[in-house]
Amino acid sequence: MALRAARIGADRTDDVVLPFQVDGLNIRGRVARLGPALDMILRQHAYPRPVSWLLGEALALAAAVGSSLKFDGVFSIQAKGNGPVKLLVVDMSSAGHLRGYAQLAGRPIAADERRLDHLVGKGQLAFTIDQGPDTERYQGIVALGEDTLADAVDHYFQQSEQLKTRLVMAAGLSTAWRSAALMVQRLPGETPDPDAWNRTEHLLASLTEEELLDVDLRAEDLLYRLFHAEGVRVFSPRPVEARCRCTRERAEGALRLVPEAELSDLMVDGRFIVTCQFCNASNIFSEAEVQALRAS
After folding, report:
1. Residue 48, SS3?
2. Three-class DSSP category at 110
3. Which pTM was predicted?
4. 219 CB burial (10 A radius; 0-12, 13-18, 19+)
């Protein structure tokens, strides 16, 4: 799929989440579009293209779902399985900071692979809200076995007996990576139109990946294309950005917890190197610094 490079300007179309509501269909939703933020996250690693594609969709998903929740902390999505991608983690803070990484099993991945069950395999998908050490963590889990990430998330919402939810996602690369996710949820209460949800699903099925990722098609215009007959309303957009939370202090904490037998695995040329899995940044410590940390 050929995509154009992202345009950056006052009318920015990327790295933003746009909430909306369609009264005629009794639904609300979010459109998340990622451009420079996603490209920065993916270019910090050398993933095979199918892995970058999957991670791009997951990050757009985190932005869409996370921005719909009320929390003060971190919302994360984790897929863990027995496939070539044995672990995929993305998260978004309540401040709108995104990050993500994938851990590979070292097995070959077909260049055109797009199926979730072929990439992650059998396993589970977990959604977690962490609001700090003094609060109880919320976690929802669903077994993996779907063709796409959108199908897996739809399955989670069906099992959790929450609001009816549907998602459409896409990711692609031209000169830069972009991704998008559109999420709709049926509002509580009865609607005068018993066919409203069916019509919502038909409208979403008509949406193409090219439309989702078209940098020249604003999110507002995309929504108008889909829902103009039902009367769509948009609300204030929310910006998001790529920002890791790793610090030297956290690296020091990790060094204190590493078992003695595994400590030598971190040593390179007489120095200890702690590398962040998310942003690939490294903190370097001398042997004397490590001994002092572990003695404190």
Report:
1. coil
2. coil
3. 0.91
4. buried
